[in-house]
Write a structure and sequence with these properties.
The complex is a heterodimer of chains A (446) and B (325). Chain A is of the alpha/beta class. Chain A has 13 helices and 18 strands. Chain A has a six-stranded mixed sheet with strand order 2-15-14-18-16-17, with helices on both faces. In chain A, strands 1-12-11-10-13 form a five-stranded parallel sheet, sandwiched between helices. In chain A, helix 4 packs across helix 5 and helix 4 crosses helix 7. By secondary structure, chain B is mainly α. Chain B has a single domain, classed as Orthogonal Bundle (Ammonium transporter fold), CATH 1.10.3430. Chain B has 15 helices and two strands. In chain B, a hairpin with a 6-residue loop joins strand 1 and strand 2. The N and C termini of chain B lie far apart (55 Å). Classes of the chains: A alpha/beta (446), B mainly alpha (325). At the A-B interface, strand 16, strand 17, helix 9, helix 12 and helix 13 of A face helix 1 and helix 15 of B.
């Protein structure tokens, strides 16, 4: 069954720029001179190292184990020697964070016992699939990095009925999910069925934006052999693929405000990359040690889609993509709407790194910030029905309680308001500031 | 080379919309009405427009320099204020009227309250109200006959229309603006052209003019003919006087009107109701200026109570009712 979905609350029409890299097949990026693997890739408790400096490691070997349910294991992406365990700069947390540094030996030797877990889902129970996801260190690859084994083990009291596979990839420029769906549709669907089986959900809906017709076709083909799968084709509009937006558009259900999650309305949402990683873990036994990363933007010579080892330096990937085209102005980890700007290229690819975007000097301009003229365009653009102009105005003046009463905590920081703002006000940054202050006050009260 | 990378918070791409671009769009949209005013009322109208715009821009520059603020005349907002004020003035007023009016609009109404984005009244209209109070004869008698360019001091057609519910003007005359009136208010065709441009460029929300003109038309249809109900002439009501320019160019001013779509509809309806009341039962022939100024004052209240529906609010309502999942 195919549904075409057009409606959406708010959002902005951002030029998608997918044409730069969408035709580039996924290539293995190669083995760099150094891999940096953070203990904190995911939401939740950091992993704990199991190796010491000078230990030799093999591809797929467990090098750090998870702490508690909401945590993820970490494996060596290639064979080599542990050079150090030391704090390195974490590009997303923006602070020094403990990491295992591996010096590859170039042999790419797999660890012993790396073998397929099963060739068919019938031979695996739900518990076994969850165990595989946990052992393979799989986290949500859409960027949030929530440990997948925790997601597919929802609390007993939640009744789940639908699983959404998120292939919308609404962030402009990025094409990693697009290429995965196009090239590995069979495996993605296999992984999706595994996610559904593990969480006990019988209805699965594959959600793709209509700017990827070839991926839609490939996924449709791959789905044909399975029962209980539907396809939802959505019009292209940012932030179509936000899990709240997807749940609302596809199922007509609204997720409760934070800390509400889709499972509160019986829904789970996973990224196509996550399904693919789980399929790999089941079909080949390989844990999550590599992922597809789009290296793109007007500032890079040959926009590409790479299969990169986790921990590969950003500078290495840009080099592999033909280096810079002209003078780079800004390098972003992730997409242009929610990604974070890097101050140094000497940082590694994380499990949640969807892409590296290089903007040219001309594109990376800081426009002057003008006073708010109350045009209300941020309100029209907000997919959550918030009023960014008031929240940010209160945040700017330190009226934190007022910012909270205007539902600052609901904000998912999608960036639509700041994108559309004609006065170029840093709305998201101000709202984030308010959120941080509200959180710390709530903690202090407790 | 890493140290030369720009590091700013997301989003890293922005829309092409700018404050300057929006203001320029409004200036462009006002051009047809200004040109029509000059064609209809002659050289005099051009002089008034020029004096008003120059005074507005100069006042902004001089004030900002005097208080050592950044001079922001290149954002075109002062040009709009000057232009709007001029278009609401009778064509034959002395030149010092727009000069004083525009300076009052910029310095007293706009800059003293914090400049662009912070004024709570529409500067052009507040200045017009000030001029009306200070020099009432100039503001109500300095008319010019269209195309013949003779001075005229008789009442505008609106006064007669309000009293009788009828007008001798033909539809074509009203559309082309061949009547006594302020420089930019008479030519409905030119105003409509500008209004459509603003709607097409997504500068204004259709709800405000629709609410304003719709309310005024329906209200006039019901109450417009003295002694009889449902016999009024709705089309003449929105074509005569300043309702058209007010609905498209003044009630839609971002800074002084509500920020939500629903709020903007209420702004329009409120303006329409007050205009209707002043015209039919008030002491002035025209109520557009005061209607919009009053609704400017109500805007913060509208913004407080008319808020968008937030995502997931259904769950909160259920929780309050003691329901919930």
């Amino acid at each position: 069954m195919i549904t075409i979905i057009k409606k959406m609350i708010g959002g902005v029409p951002v030029p998608d720029k997918k044409e730069l890299s969408e035709k580039a097949p996924v290539e293995f990026a190669g083995i760099p001179d150094e891999l940096v693997l953070f203990m904190s890739h995911h939401i939740g408790a950091p992993a704990v190292p199991l190796v010491k400096p000078k230990d030799t490691v093999k591809r797929g070997q467990l090098i750090a184990e998870p702490q508690g349910l909401v945590s993820a294991a970490l494996h060596a992406p290639t064979s080599g020697v542990v050079k150090a365990i030391e704090p390195r700069f974490h590009p997303v947390l923006a602070c020094m964070s403990e990491a295992i540094v591996i010096k590859p030996d170039g042999k790419h030797e797999p660890v012993e016992g790396l073998a397929p877990k099963a060739s068919h889902l019938d031979s695996l129970s739900a518990e076994q699939i969850r165990a595989i996801a946990r052992e393979a260190g799989i986290v949500g690859l859409g960027g949030a990095c929530f440990p997948t084994s925790a997601k597919i083990t929802p609390p007993e009291d939640k009744h789940l009925d639908t699983y959404l596979l998120n292939g919308s990839e609404c962030e402009p420029y990025l094409t990693a999910d697009h290429r995965v769906m196009l090239e590995e549709a069979e495996k993605v669907i296999f992984g999706f069925k595994a996610l559904m089986k593990a969480s006990g959900v019988s209805r699965g809906i594959v959600c793709i934006e209509d700017n990827k017709p070839d991926a839609i076709e490939a996924m449709k083909q791959a789905m044909s052999g399975y029962d209980g799968l539907e396809l939802a084709v959505l019009t292209t509009r940012y932030p179509r693929g936000g899990e709240k937006q997807l749940t609302q558009a596809v199922l007509g259900r609204e997720v409760p405000p934070p800390p509400g999650l889709p499972y509160d309305v019986g829904v789970l949402v996973s990224n196509v990359g996550t399904a693919y990683a789980l399929a790999e873990a089941i079909l080949t036994g390989l844990p999550l040690v590599e992922r597809v990363v789009t290296v793109t933007g007007e500032g890079v010579a040959k926009p590409s889609n790479f299969k990169a080892l986790i921990g590969t330096p950003v500078s290495y990937l840009i080099e592999k993509a033909g280096g810079f085209a002209g003078t780079p102005g800004k390098v972003i980890m992730g997409g242009p709407m929610m990604g974070c700007a890097l101050k140094s290229l000497d940082v590694p690819v994380l499990k949640g790194t969807t892409g590296i975007l290089v903007l040219t000097k001309e594109q990376a301009v800081q426009e002057p910030i003008l006073p708010c003229i109350k045009c209300g365009k941020c309100i029209d653009a907000c997919p959550l029905g918030l009023q960014p102009l008031w929240i940010s105005a209160y945040a700017e003046r330190g009226f934190i309680e007022e910012a909270e009463s205007f539902r600052a905590m609901d904000c998912m920081e999608c960036g639509c308001c700041a994108y559309i703002c004609p006065a170029k006000r840093p709305l998201v940054q101000l709202i984030k500031m308010a959120k941080a202050e509200i959180s710390s006050r709530r903690k202090a009260r407790r | 080379m890493g140290d030369r990378l720009l590091v700013t918070p997301p989003p890293h791409v922005k829309s092409a919309k700018t404050v300057q671009g929006i203001m320029l769009d409004v200036v462009i949209a006002l051009c047809p009405a200004a040109i029509a005013g000059i064609v209809l009322f002659g050289f005099r109208a051009a002089l008034i427009i020029l004096a008003s715009v120059v005074s507005a821009v100069a006042s902004e520059a001089i004030y900002q320099r005097a208080v050592k603020k950044q001079v922001t005349i290149n954002d075109f907002s002062a040009v709009i204020t000057g232009l709007l004020l001029a278009l609401t003035l009778p064509p034959n007023v002395p030149v010092w009227i727009p000069v004083i009016g525009a300076a009052f609009a910029i310095v007293v109404v706009k800059q003293l309250f914090g400049g662009l984005g912070n004024n709570f009244l529409n500067p052009a209209l507040a200045a017009r109200a000030f001029l009306l109070a200070a020099w009432p004869l100039h503001m109500t008698q300095d008319w010019v006959n269209p195309m013949s360019y003779d001075a005229a001091t008789s009442a505008t057609p609106l006064a007669g229309f309000n009293a009788t519910g009828q007008t001798a003007l033909t539809f074509k005359e009203m559309l082309l603006g061949q009547r006594l009136g302020s420089i930019g208010e008479t030519c409905i065709l030119a105003l409509l052209l500008g209004g459509i441009y603003l709607l097409a460029r997504d500068v204004i929300d259709y709800r405000t003019p629709l609410g304003y003109l719709g309310t005024l038309a329906v209200g006039t249809w019901i109450f417009g003919k003295p002694g009889e109900l449902f016999q009024g002439n709705p089309l003449s009501a929105i074509f005569l006087g300043g309702a058209f320019i007010g609905a498209f160019f003044m009630a839609t001013d971002y800074v002084t009107s509500p920020v939500t779509p629903r709020g903007r509809l209420y702004m329009g309806i409120g303006c329409g109701l007050i205009t209707l009341v002043i015209r039919l039962w008030g002491g002035y022939p025209e109520g557009v200026t005061y209607a919009i100024l009053f609704m400017n004052l109500v805007t913060p209240l509208i913004d407080k109570y008319v808020v968008p529906r937030y995502y997931g609010s259904g769950h909160d309502k259920m929780a309050r009712k003691g329901g919930g999942r």
